[in-house]
Amino acid sequence: MTEICFAPPFGLRSALDRFRRDEAGSVAIESAFYLPLLLAMFAAIFTLYDAFRQESISIKAAYTISDLVSRETATLDDVYMDNMYLLTQAMTRDTRDVSMRISAVYWDEANKSYGVDWSVERGAGLEVWNNDTINTVAENLPVLPDQERVILVETWNNLLPVFNVGLDNFNLYNFVFTRPRFAGQVIFEGMRTSDGPVHDDGTEDATP
Question: Domain residues of the chain, as ranges?
Answer without folding.
Answer: 26-178
